[in-house]
Amino acid sequence: MTAHALNQSSPLAPDWLAVPSDLNALHPPMWAAGVERNDDGELAVDGIPVSTLKEQFGTPLFVMGESDFRARARAFKDAFDDAFADICGGVDVYYAGKSFLCTAVATWVAEEGLRLDTCSGGELAVAARAGIDGANLSLHGNNKSDAEINRGLDMKLGRIVVDSLDELERVAKIASSRGETAKVMLRLTPGVHAHTHEFIATAHEDQKFGLSMAEDSTDQAGLSAAEEAVAAATSYPGIELLGLHCHIGSQIFEPDGFALAAEKLLGFLAVMQQKYSIQLPELDLGGGYGIAYTPVDTPRPAAEIAQAMAAVVRSKCAELGISAPRISIEPGRAIVGSSTFTLYEVGTLKTVRVDAPAAGTAGAAGDQPKNVTYPRRYVSVDGGMSDNARPVLYDADYSAIVASRSSAAAPQLSRVVGKHCESGDIVVRDVYLPEDVAAGDLLAVPGTGAYCWALSSNYNYLARPGVVAVRGGAARLIVRGETEEDLLNRDMGA
Ligand SMILES: *Cc1c(COP(=O)(O)O)cnc(C)c1O
Question: What's the gap in Å between 426 CA and the centre of ligand 1?
Answer without folding.
Answer: 25
